[in-house]
Specification:
413 residues; mainly beta; 2 domains; five-stranded antiparallel sheet; four-stranded antiparallel sheet; 3 helices
């Protein structure tokens, strides 16, 4: 009796599921052999960093347009230090002692090329954050906070740190206070900006409904009341708009023709606070889009069919200054081709960059897609950071909430 293709695939998947954990295939006997995919082979890392003591913590960063890597190493008990690695020389050139290893180290940012680094720490008791600046010599030379969170943006070609403080009032109102700091030294810039939103998320001044924050907390996305048409004596529909929160002025607005698309982007912002560029993959893998801060979507066309990937594996990172989204997808070892030949593919990770070229008409535009690297996967989860010159991948611990013991550096051609 013929077996329905869908039932057959389900049976094969269930057999595989019993021997597949975290993307690694454990093969009992010789029933199914792991085959490499028939496409591009995985790249070998340019070099690998393994700590001799402690472990590599979650925060690590690549210097924008530079050749340095900032790596936070600790044992969570006796030491915490930031190591600056020269990626071209393949060696650590500076070690910065961070003092108390107990705080939760959340983020590391370069303050500019050869301008020192910023380390963001979260207090485990109250959740508030502090930003510490270390100058090029490695000395602490500036402090910002405490605040609810921090973001980085670019103004006038220079990086700017934004302190974002959110406080609830007794009446249900929420007060947002934005404080600007020069990234290099954390000197304050101007006076703080204060916005008060009602319980429904509406600003009183200017009248504006908040749907999310973006670009390092320097912008507020939402809807503002439409203008008044005196000839027709009617109020125009609300408009999608972006408020420059550091200047208090609207930087963009448009007639909100695609209410569904703008609402969908608002949902993305709620799930991913302080983001303006997204790689959006449908849960069923049917479509893949690049979404920008104005609610526009552009279809992403990959060199590998979408059904070959595990949609749940998507990770992405934005570079708003360059208008670029970096993203990764893991090859599904049990993809349709593997199921058809009854052989599991080797687990692999593809890291891509996507951007819409400057000067391109946005109407019907397709992002430029570049596959930066293809790396092998094992039973360890991974995280990564990318730039135009490097991809750095952290092999994380399987049974520990933070960090790992191996950093792979891939130099891009």
């Amino acid at each position: 009796m013929a077996v329905d293709d869908g039932i057959r695939d389900l049976v094969i998947r269930q057999v595989f599921a019993g021997v597949c954990v975290m993307g690694v295939i454990a093969i009992p006997g010789a029933a199914f052999a792991a085959d490499p995919p028939p496409s591009v082979d995985a790249a070998a890392p340019t070099f690998v960093l393994r700590p001799d003591t402690g472990f590599v913590d979650d925060p690590f960063a690549i210097e924008p347009d530079g050749g340095k890597l900032a790596v936070l190493r600790t044992d969570s008990a006796s030491f915490a230090r930031l190591e600056i690695v020269d990626l071209a020389a393949r060696r650590t050139t500076q070690m910065i002692e961070l003092g108390d290893p107990q705080p939760v180290f959340e983020r590391v940012w370069f303050a500019g090329r050869d301008r020192g680094v910023i380390v963001v720490v979260r207090d485990a008791r109250d959740g508030r954050r502090t930003a510490q600046y270390y100058d090029p010599a490695g000395k602490p030379a500036g402090l910002a906070g405490p605040a609810t969170d921090f973001g980085m943006t670019m103004r006038g070609g220079k990086p700017l740190l934004v302190g974002w403080d959110k406080k609830k009032g007794p009446s249900g109102d929420t007060t947002f206070t934005l404080t600007q700091y020069q990234a290099d030294g954390l000197g304050r810039v101007g006076r703080p900006r204060v916005y008060v939103a009602t319980k429904a998320g509406e600003l009183r001044k200017p009248p504006f409904v908040i749907t999310g924050w973006q670009d390092g907390y320097s912008q507020i996305a939402g809807q503002r009341p439409g203008g008044y048409d005196a000839k027709k004596d009617v109020r125009q529909p609300d408009e999608a708009a972006i408020l420059d929160a550091l200047r208090g002025e609207f930087s963009w607005s448009a007639g909100n023709g695609d209410l569904f698309g703008w609402a969908a982007l608002g949902e993305l912002r709620r799930k991913h606070e302080n983001r303006s560029l997204f790689a959006v993959l449908a849960e069923d893998g049917s479509n893949f889009d690049f979404a920008d801060g104005q609610g526009r979507r552009f279809p992403i066309k990959l060199p590998v069919p979408l059904q070959m990937y595990d949609a749940r594996s998507l990770q992405d990172q934005e570079d708003t200054a360059a208008g670029t989204v970096y993203f990764s997808l893991a090859l599904d070892p049990l993809n349709p081709e593997a199921l058809a030949r009854r052989k599991a593919d080797r687990p692999l990770l593809d890291v891509y960059a996507a951007w819409v070229p400057a000067g391109t008409s946005r109407e019907g535009a397709l992002p430029t897609i570049t596959r930066l690297v293809r790396a092998t996967l094992d039973d360890r989860p991974v995280s990564w950071v990318a730039s135009s010159r490097f991809v750095v991948l952290l092999r994380k611990y399987k049974n520990f909430s933070r960090g790992g013991n191996e950093l792979e550096i891939y130099a891009l051609k």
